[in-house]
Structures are given as structure tokens and as C-alpha cells.
Amino acid sequence: MNITEIKSEIAGDSYYKVEHPSGLTIFVYPKEGYTSSYAIFGTRYGSINTKFSVNGGDIITVPNGIAHYLEHKLFESEEGDAFVRYAKTGANANAYTSFEKTCYLFSCTDKFDESLEILLDFVQDPYFTAQTVAKEQGIIGQEIKMYDDSPDWRVMFNMLEGMYHNHPVKIDIAGTVETIAEITAEKLYEVYNVFYNLNNMILCVAGNVTVDGVLKVADKMLKPCEKKEIKNYFETEPYEIKEPYVEQTFPVSMPLFNLGFKEKADKPLNEKQLAFTDILLSALASNTSMLYRNLMDSNLINSSFSYELFEGPGYCSVIFGGESRAPKQAAEMIKQYISDIKKNGIDKEDFEIARKSVYGDSVSSLNSVSAISNSIIDYAMQGNEIFAYIDAVANAKLEDINARLAEMLDVDNCTLSVVKQPDEV
């Protein structure tokens, strides 16, 4: 077993990476003086992984929404529901499926070892039958309809549908009522046996824990498995967007918009690229930026305005969005501002404010056991490391940010998605 301590001189903190004999990679981030603990157990398997091969075999295609369906079903076992077991330890448990991963988690202030045993037990012990799978279709079908009725959800997925020609990121994480009807117990076992291999998974624990304590539970509960070579397949995705404008009518009090800039996604962004992008976006659109003030002064946005880097395997975009009485005008102002900044570069003072803000947020997040664990697993899934990101933020130079700006935010390659009342212009 290989245990590596990862230190940050800048953050003044450290944590441990363990290559467990079972094949699982484990991160342990002890926080002295903390009473709470948080654990997250994730697999590199999300909604976009619907076409894959194992060990060089034939390509397998599974229904859209099956990763999310599997997440729901995994809490069940012949002995009962995992939530019932957690209730006995007092842990607060949850799970989620994103585009590229599925994660199971809990937080607690007591009985950590028992809760960790539950987590490692039920995630490694699937139980699917035709009857239980059929029962879940109605529940998830209702969840799909709920998201279809959510304007925030629709404005984002409409944007993705307008932006991407082929990549499955444009497909709802939960699938559709039609696709989940194709899911069977056999298909659930098929994808489980491929992607829920410990060599394809990560466990991250932070808080009132020790490396020895975590490894004692891991040694007891983990079931070693043979590593599999998994290859995911995606259709070729052109750089150009599919549609520049997408609109849907909805009963909303104020129109919503998402303006997405499609970026190149040849390979995952590294820590420096992520750091420089975050500083750039903060300088461009945070609530201290000139763009934000101009949009506010023009009554084109309100405090709901936000921005984000949206990135994963084969997809990458920058999204600005929120409520606006005039979404098209807001989008034009954002695009014009970006065009001007591209000509002149980021102002040095704006850069320093943004760098300090991103750095402060990054370091302060190390005070939250949930933020630590979620960040570490997010970075690790992409082959990155949290302290390397913080170091990149701290050491960023203005020329780094302007170089990143030159690579991004093509104002001729963006999609505007609007959700509004039928009678609005």
C-alpha cells in the first residue's frame, strides 16, 4: 500500500493519498479540532457514459438515464434501505449523478466508522430485481417531469441542445420517460460491473478522521477486483455551435437566460488552466466588475446573475446567466464587453482584485469538510490536484490571464437560451 502526503506551503495544510491494494484510491484530509466528518465515494460514471467498451471488447450502448437510475437503486438491498441503516448512526446521507460521475456521501459528528462501513458496504453490494427496477420507473418518471417543469433546468438544457450537435452532455441526466422504460435489472448489473470497479473509483474523507482509522475500515470492507480497461465513445463534436438562439415559453415572473460560449474540449483542463479561467471570469463578471455594474445600471440583470466554467470529458463552455427583463440586450452587452476586453486586455487592478478573490475563496473553502472532499474528488476525477490549483491561483500573472482570454470566449460561437412568458417580446 502506497501512502503519499500532499502538502501546500501556501495553504499551510496537508492531506494523504492512499493507493489501496483493492485498487481504490483514497484521500484522507484530517482537520485537527473539527468535530464533523464527511465522506464521498464516487465512480467515473455519469450520464454521458452511454457508449463504451471493456478490455477492448465490443462497443456497448445503454439507455440514457441509466447512471442516475443505478444511483437510485443502489441504496436498496435484500436487508433493507441504506438510509434506514444511516438513521441508526445519525449520519446525513445523500447521492448524486452528474454528467461524468456518480457519488455517494454522508456527513456526521459521531459514529464515523460505522457510517463509513455502511457507505462502503452498500455501494459494493448491488441488488436489482425486475420488480424493484419496475417500481422505480414511476418515481424517476415523476422526477423527470419535475425537471421538465423547472425553468432553471430548461434554460440550461435548451442552451446545451443549441450548443452541442452530438455530445451527450445535451441530454438530460435522468434521461426521458421513454429511455428509462428500456432499463432492466440485467442492464443495471452490466453497467455496475463495468464502472463500479474500485480501480475506477475514489473515496475522499475529511474532518475528524485519521489515516489509520479510515484504512482500518477500508481494509475490512473493500473487495479487491481486477482492473478493467474502460473506453468511452463519443461522436465527433465540431467546435461550432449548433444554434445561436433557443427560446421556450414558460410561466415565469421574469425571463431567464443562459448565454453559453462553446470552448475547445480536446483534453481536460489542467490546474493552471482552471485557475487562470477562474481568475479571468471573476475579473470579467463578478459583482465588482465593470460588466456587472453596466448590466445593473442598465436594469438588464439582478442579483441572480452568475457565471461558471462548465467542463468535462469532451465538453467545455463558459456560461453567463440569470434573470433579465431583456435577455437579448443583456447578451449583446456581455458579448460587446468581451470583444472590447479582448482588444485591450484585462486591467491590472481588475486582475489583482480577481486573483485575490479567487485565492481567498479557495483557501477559505479548506475550512469546510464538505468543500474539501467534493473539491478533491472533482479534481482527482480529471487528474488534477487541489493544492496545485491553489498554487496556480497564488502565482498567476496578468499575462497568464490575458493569454487565457485570447484562447476563449469566441463571441461568434455562443448560444443564447431564453425562457419567457408567451406574450413577452
Strand content: 15-25%
Mean pLDDT: 95
- The spatial strand order of the largest sheet comes to 1-2-3-9-4-8-7
The count of DSSP E runs of length 2 or more, i.e. the number of strands, is 15
The general outline is globular
Can you summarize the main beta sheet?
A: 7 strands, mixed
Helix tally?
Answer: 15
Q: How far is it from the N-terminal to the C-terminal residue, by CA?
A: 63 Å
The helix content is 40-55%
Radius of gyration: 22 Å
- Which sequence of SSEs, written as H and E, runs from N to C? EEEEEEHHEEHHHHHEHEEEHHEEHHHHHE
Pfam family, one: Peptidase_M16_C
Domain Peptidase M16 N-terminal: 64-176
Protein name: Pitrilysin family protein
Organism: Ruminococcoides intestinale
Structure description:
42% of the residues lie in helices and 21% in strands. The chain is α+β, with helices and mostly antiparallel strands and 425 residues long. The strands form three sheets. A seven-stranded mixed β-sheet has the order 1-2-3-9-4-8-7, sandwiched between helices. A five-stranded mixed β-sheet has the order 11-15-12-14-13, with helices on both faces. The protein has a three-stranded antiparallel β-sheet with strand order 6-5-10, with no helix packed on it. Helix 1 packs across helix 7. The longest helix has 19 residues, at 130-148. The chain is globular. It starts with a strand and ends in a 5-residue tail after the last strand.
